[in-house]
Amino acid sequence: MTDSIFDIAVIGGGINGAGIARDAAGRGLSVLLVEKGDLAGATSSASTKLVHGGLRYLEHYKFRLVREALAEREVLLKMAPHIIWPLRFVLPHHSGLRPYWMIRLGVFMYDHLGGRKILPGSRSVDLRHDVAGQMLNPMFRRGFEYSDGWVDDARLVMLNARDAAARGADIRVRTACTQARREGDLWHVQLSDGTTARARILVNAAGPWVADVLGDVVKQHSPSKVRLVKGSHIVVRRLFDHDRCYIFQNADGRICFAIPYEQDFTLIGTTDLDYHGDPADVAINADEIAYLCKAVSGYFTKPVQPEDVVWSYSGVRPLYDDGASKAQEATRDYVLELDTEHGAPLLSVFGGKITTYRRLAETALAKLKPYAPNMKAAWTAGSSLPGGDFAHDGVAAGVADLRRRYAFLSAEHAARLFRLYGTEAATWLGDANSVADLGICFGADLTEREVEWMCTHEWARTAQDVLWRRSKLGLRFSAEQVQTLEGWLTARG
Q: Nearest to residue 346, comparing CAs of 202, 138, 150, 191?
């Protein structure tokens, strides 16, 4: 039993929970965040990994959502330029689907809705002569190119948690909230480690488990307002050599992305299917793999086959149930429900996108301001995340500087480290003068010193944490190498 009273206790270590914890800690509030598994262990590491406004949302008239998301792209790019960077999207015109004028209007609005300053604007593309058209079916003769951004989703969550911790937040991973009850003006939060914490405000940011927390943990049964929608992705060997992404229209009204991924691969996604069951058990099925292969094969000259898939992942989006008839049409906007009728405040988070997580956190804290009168002003818009304290276009210079300081690093190794850690790479590289100084190499270029940093500063505990969330090196590891890494982590304790 602990005697400390937190201003806010947050349940859930996904992007929304970590974002709220960081914002609140930076406003001078005492914060506890509990996560039953690993940070970004579910939905927040299973995204399409885009910072985008959502071009297709325009045809559903979601103008406020698109405007907010478009504005956030450049805020986030400045905040974490090591893990977020600009990406150009090529949209071939399919004469049998949306008309050309509609797409042109859409990209024009996309250029002008969000106050774009850094990212370049859209342009028309002659696919008969542009390199982006070389691997496409010759029937696609023209299209458009526009800007959005790429993000390492799992590291974005972890860096928000790191910054929250640096500002005083208590971050507890692999610690479930088993019960939360109101006693007077306080929440008593029972945790799986046997302790109890007290807090003035409880935030339910449990993602796809938000309804479970309301019913099983808080014991506040009410009609479910969450719609679980499954999204799956596949990864294949690199399909094209340029660094642009494709966005393809499908006959069912959906869109599909084909995105350069980890230098040697292409990421293809996503699906939209209503999901029933435990989100922890979500997995791609054969029909989804076939759907994604067919979707891109309708555009590429060389078909993508299910046997080409080298990895896949699935996540469950906890969307607010707005009554949409199709999963793909359900709102991606966030909804924040504040309950004060039963005593101490409870804020539940429904929906949301990675792109708008920072604005969601600001909106959440604005709602909670009356119950935390000592809360300081909003501050995150001009901030940087750990390792991101350099110019938004300074990655190349940062990599070059890292190689000057550590001449034993190959160009590829230095680029990977700077993309993951930014200016903090030099912090853990320290006084190393050779690769040997970094200790055991577990595979690829992952060394003992890097894993030690992940464990000590990034809450990594397992090989899954290290290889799929703190990095994406799982694509390059053999089963034997994974076992060796797991053994080292177990011995470390």
A: 202
